[in-house]
Amino acid sequence: MSKDNIYILGIESSCDDTSASVICNGKVLSNVVANQEVHAKYGGVVPELASRAHQQNIVPVVQLAIEQAGITKHDLKAIAFTRGPGLMGSLLVGTSFAKSLALGLNIPLIDVNHMQAHILAHFIKEENSKIPPFPFVCLTISGGHTQIVKITNHFEMEILGETIDDAVGEAFDKSAKILGLPYPGGPLIDKYAQLGNSKAFKFTKPKVGDLEFSFSGLKTGILYFIQKNIKENPDFIKENLHDICASIQYTIIEILMDKLKNTVKQTEIKHIAIAGGVSANSEIRKRLALAEKHWGWTTYIPKFEYTTDNAAMIAIAGYLKYLNNDYSDISITAQARLKVTE
C-alpha cells in the first residue's frame, strides 16, 4: 500500500441513518448506510429510538466500511465525524465513537458540519464527475433545511437566502401525510407525480423576499384544498392522487427555481449545484438540466447515494480538512444546532 494514500474514515449519525465510509485521496472506497425502519409506524423520526438504533448499528457499520475498503483500521490517517446539526442523542453516539477510535488508534479527529458536508459531496472524485469551480451557488434542500449558499472556497460559505419557516422536505412530507401516504412521503409524491398532470390544480406561491423561502402557507393551502374537495367527494384523493401529487410537486419546484433565477440575477454566478436529501427529487434534477439549455447555467447534480445522509460526504469534508491540518481537539462536543457557516 502506497504511503501517499490518505485513508479517511467518515462517520455520520445526525438523524436516523448510521453510516460509515472510507475514502482514499478523495475517492470513495466504501459507503455503508444502515437505515432505521423503526420510525415508519410513528410517521416521523423518534429521537430516543434513533439514538438506540445508532448504538446497535455503529460498530458493525464501521467494521463493514473498513472491510469493504480493503484496508485495516491501522491504515486510517484520521477519523471524521458529524458534529452537527442534528438530533442530539444521535450525534452523541457518532461523536463518542469517533473520539474513542481516534484515541485508540492515536490519529487525528476531525469534526464536520453536516450541512457543509452535503455541499462538499460535490468534491468526491468519481469518473466523469463534474466538480464545481469557485465561486458557485448551492441550493441545499432537505427535511430540515432550505438555503441558498454561496461557496467561495471549501470552507468559506455565505447564506444568501433561506426559509423563514418550514423546510422544503417538510413541505413534501406533510403534504404526503395530508394525502394519507406513509412516511417518508416525499419520495412517494415524486413517484406518483410522474403519472399525473402538474397543471391539474393550482396552489398559491408565497410572497416573500427575492431569496427567501416559505412553505408553511403552502402546506395550509394544500390542507384546506384537500378538506374542501373531500367534503364534496369522499373519493377525491383516490380518484386524483397522481394529479394532486404532480401539482404539489410542480408548485414546490417552481418556488425553488424562481429563487435560483433571482440568485443568478443578483450574483451573476451561473455555476449552480444542489445538495441535501430533496436533491434526489427527479423533477428538480430535470429542471436543473433544462436550465443549462435555457439560461446557460452549468449545473452540478450529485449522485443519488450522496444526496441523502451518508458518510461519504463526511469523509470527503474530513479529507479536505485533513489536507489543511484542520484537526479537532478531543474535548469537542456535538452541537444540535449549527449553521452552514459555522
TrEMBL record:
Keywords: Acyltransferase, Cytoplasm, Iron, Metal-binding, Transferase, tRNA processing. Residues 27-315 form the Gcp-like domain. InterPro entries: ATPase_NBD, Gcp-like_dom, KAE1/TsaD, Peptidase_M22_CS, TsaD. SUPFAM superfamilies: Actin-like ATPase domain. It is found in: Cytoplasm. The keyword Metal-binding applies. Its cofactor is Fe(2+). It holds the Pfam family TsaD. Fe cation binds at residues 114, 118, 309. GO terms for biological process: tRNA threonylcarbamoyladenosine modification. GO terms for cellular component: cytoplasm. Belongs to the KAE1 / TsaD family. This is tRNA N6-adenosine threonylcarbamoyltransferase. It comes from Tenacibaculum caenipelagi. The lineage of its organism: Bacteria, Pseudomonadati, Bacteroidota, Flavobacteriia, Flavobacteriales.
